[in-house]
Amino acid sequence: MKNQISRRNFFFKTVGAGAGLCLIPSVSGTSFMQSGKGSAPLIITSHTNLTGQNAMEAGWEILKSGGTAVDAVERAANVIEVDPEDTSVGYGGLPNERGVVQLDASFMDGSTYSAGAVGCLENIKTPSSVARKVMEHTDHVLLVGTGALEFARAWGFPEENLLTEKARKIWLRWKEELSPKDDWGAPEHLQNLVKKEAYWRDFPQIENHYGTTNVLAIDASGNIAGCTTTSGLSFKLNGRLGDSPIIGAGLYVDNEVGAAGATGRGEDVIKSCASYYMVLRMKDGRTPQQACEDALHMIVDRYRKVNPEFFPSEKFVAINKSGELGCAIMKGGRNPEMSVRSTGGFRKYEGIVAFPGK
Ligand code: GLY
Question: Which of 86, 118, 210 to mutate to test the pocket of ligand 1 (most atoms within 8 A of CB)?
């Protein structure tokens, strides 16, 4: 596989961390595993910004004192979900085509082989917590729409407007840009004065239509849990479910093997059952890093006959029960990263681009 062995050595990055500026080791490729330092407990997220780092510290507080992976994952996911600046997850997420924020989330507990999920959930800031309630308090796996909202209400989750001013402005800009013949239109657009790209300069978030986050953890008892949570594809059709609430697509956890999560174009992740596939690959002896890359190659292989130039945007993360790590992205100019917290501190793990140049 292309680029598989690029930058496999430990190196250090200087970043502002928790209590202040410190040196954070970044591990690349499979070095983490080969160094034998990937022991539990640990927690990871695909989110690599400061909120992702804060989420890892919040989850780690639970793990370091002997708490469960399920509790750590929920706490960490909530930190990301309530960040109003994040336009891809929870509160502040970009809305659907009607301007309504509809959230998807899934939860899985490897110790009990149980799972819960919610789809198209409106007005609740923390869908991962509702998904956990579905997992622990019902014999169902997936609740959607008004049913999911009624369930959340029953458990006392507060209802709030999830559409921030920032997200509303981005949505309105999108409506203005739909077509130069629409009745909606930015003044410059209606006068046909400015090229399309210029409209989006102020709204870089719009580039990231599929933002999502995965949180995976192993606790001191070796139990594994995971969560995937998202506001889904921005400006999606009303009622569209992505991969995030689909067990086996956006998330899968097996206590005997490991866990995997997906971000990116949900339609491809659903069709490929990507997270389940990654866990099966690890069960067959592949490392988490190899499993992530295998899943991306599998998707491209599926398209080879019908659309050989199609390389959809996905980023996959995985851990195995030994605490080894994996992260790979379909395409792009920069290696993907994920955030990791364990006894060694906080660090970024650097994965690989499966199809560089695409
Ligand atoms: N992966 C997020 C979505 O497609 O909704």
Answer: 210
